[in-house]
Amino acid sequence: MIVAFSVTPLGVGEDVGEYVADAVRVVRESGLPHRTDAMFTSVEGDWDQVMDVVKRAVAAVEARAPRVSVVMKADIRPGVTGGLVSKVETVERYLGE
Predict the structure, then answer these.
(1) How far apart are CA 68 and CA 84, in angstroms?
(2) HEC profile for the chain?
(3) Closest to 69 in 3D by CA, of 21, 11, 13, 18
(4) How far apart are CA 65 and CA 58, in angstroms?
(5) In contact, 5 and 70? CB cutoff 8 Å
(6) CA dihedral defined by 23, 52, 80, 25, rounded to 10 degrees?
């Protein structure tokens, strides 16, 4: 399973990078495959692993912000691993043709 999620602190002003970094730190320390871009962090693992990481990432932001918004999108394919890399490689292969 891959979950792409975004955690946004509300009520802390416009500069939210340090709060987002708290969430990304949780993901990185989880040891699960992950990727962060300008809008989302994607994490790959089984349901319980991924949801635990998302919950802890939200809690890290919630500890410092009065309100938190979370957006999630999930790709659930039992038995499939390595999707964070293979999906991108497939698209790149088609772009190279």
Answers:
(1) 26
(2) CEEEEEEEEECCCCCCHHHHHHHHHHHHHHCCCEEECCCCEEEECCHHHHHHHHHHHHHHHHCCCCEEEEEEEEECCCCCCCHHHHHHHHHHHHHHC
(3) 11
(4) 10
(5) yes
(6) 20
Region for 31 from its dihedrals, namely left if φ exceeds 0, alpha if ψ lies in -120 to 50, beta otherwise: left
Angstrom distance (rounded) from CA 46 to CA 39: 23
Task: Give the separation between CA 66 and CA 61, rounded to whole angstroms.
Answer: 9
Which residues pair with residue 43 across a beta bridge?
Answer: 3, 34
Name residue 59's amino acid.
A
- pLDDT tens for each residue of 49-71: 999 999 999 999 999 999 999 99
| pTM exceeds cut of 0.70 | yes
